[in-house]
Amino acid sequence: xxxxxxxxxxxxxxxxxxxxxxxxxxxxxxxxxxxxxxxxxxxxxxxxxxxxxxxxxxxxxxxxxxxxxxxxxxxxxxxxxxxxxxxxxxxxxxxxxxxxxxxxxxxxxxxxxxxxxxxxxxxxxxxxxxxxxxxxxxxxxxxxxxxxxxxxxxxxxxxxxxxxxxxxxxxxxxxxxxxxxxxxxxxxxxxxxxxxxxxxxxxxxxxxxxxxxxxxxxxxxxxxxxxxxxxxxxxxxxxxxxxxxxxxxxxxxxxxxxxxxxxxxxxxxxxxxxxxxxxxxxxxxxxxxxxxxxxxxxxxxxxxxxxxxxxxxxxxxxxxxxxxxxxxxxxxxxxxxxxxxxxxxxxxxxxxxxxxxxxxxxxxxxxxxxxxxxxxxxxxxxxxxxxxxxxxxxxxxxxxxxxxxxxxxxxxxxxxxxxxxxxxxxxxxxxxxxxxxxxxxxxxxxxxxx
Length: 450
Ligand code: TYD
Ligand code: MG
What we know:
Layout: E1 5-10, E2 16-17, E3 33-38, H1 72-77, E4 87-92, H2 98-111, E5 116-120, H3 125-134, E6 142-146, H4 150-160, E7 164-168, H5 185-202, E8 205-211, H6 221-227, E9 230-235, E10 242-250, E11 258-264, E12 267-270, H7 274-279, E13 289-296, E14 299-311, E15 319-322, H8 326-340, E16 347-353, H9 365-377, E17 385-387, E18 390-391, E19 397-398, H10 403-412, E20 417-421, E21 432-436, H11 439-448
Parallel strand pairs: 4-8, 4-9, 5-6, 5-7, 7-8, 15-16, 17-20, 20-21
Antiparallel strand pairs: 1-2, 1-3, 9-10, 10-11, 11-12, 13-14, 14-16, 18-19
Bound molecules: thymidine-5'-diphosphate and magnesium ion (MG).
Family: Belongs to the RecA family. RadA subfamily.
GO molecular function, one term: hydrolase activity
Keywords: ATP-binding, DNA damage, DNA repair, DNA-binding, Hydrolase, Metal-binding, Nucleotide-binding, Stress response, Zinc, Zinc-finger
């Protein structure tokens, strides 16, 4: 019999090294190597083959039809729903709402008499029942078990025969028959591989919950990404109710869709019209405020940008950018000074994207620069104006992608004027385009426009 051996495995890339080092020799990350005992044989190899070759024309196309969960924003990201036999990894920080989302999705399926199983290795049956009660999820077709032993979980799959199964979380699962140590990257990977084999063999759509590490990656991310079909990440700012769901990898569809939710007392509520929500509390006529039509995935979103400029004290001026890229803001402040003659070198500058959105696309450059200019000069931007455009080092404005969709969304929400780069095409009905070649022109026209 082959002897097991000790290796040092990287928690980031899964690469193995024969001895410990401060830096992973495979991916170059620091302090990611952990000791583990490597199994003499790969456990996934023990699963009997369940596939049968067939002429391509005889393959049943309906077998891969997604089944809607009934949670629209989730179905949007999944490209329609959950594909039978597929494995989806749902990643997100603790407390972001992963368990809540999945409980709601299972309840929605169970409501339509679809047999579903929720396996929790994190919470007791009582805890989950209480939550289910609050969410209106006490459905007879929703089965629950608190379990961490993978062999038992697989036995429960036989007993309940669910159409959809949730395992919350993959990091809490253990398989005592595996030689990898509990909680190690290797064990998480092996458990995921085994569950994947079971899901494929039985046609169960399986969702694994995955914790993210402090720097935002799923624990052992690349390892798990290879094992599963779909990776979905659930994000949001801790102090905001807004939650964003996006596909990072998707074998059955596009990764461009974005799902939006609001965390409420009654669980997660889909946001079919987020722009309206983002602008609901906007105060008209205040300097430093401007609206930018941004695109998240395929979705146009109107987001308010705000800037505040104050006299700086002694020492170097403060720069604060929430939901925005710091480097991009410094860049825009430099261009404002050199190319538009608006200097904030003696001032503190605070800027933020309202509503907990992260706004990092260059299409927001012009709006951010105009917000700072408006705050610095204390001249408000007209309420019905939006700004779109990328700013170059020479102070020139450049066209951005999907301008038509951005403008259409602005028109839908009642904006009548858009400041855009000179080369922009035609506007949709209801929007007047103000074309500007440079940032200086845009500031001049935007802050003095009637
Ligand atoms: P949870 O789903 O447990 O997060 P995760 O599984 O990602 O760790 O959600 C936890 C947070 O959500 C918790 O702080 C309370 C909040 N919450 C609500 O605001 N409303 C609700 O209806 C529920 C169930 C949770
Ligand atoms: Mg949870």
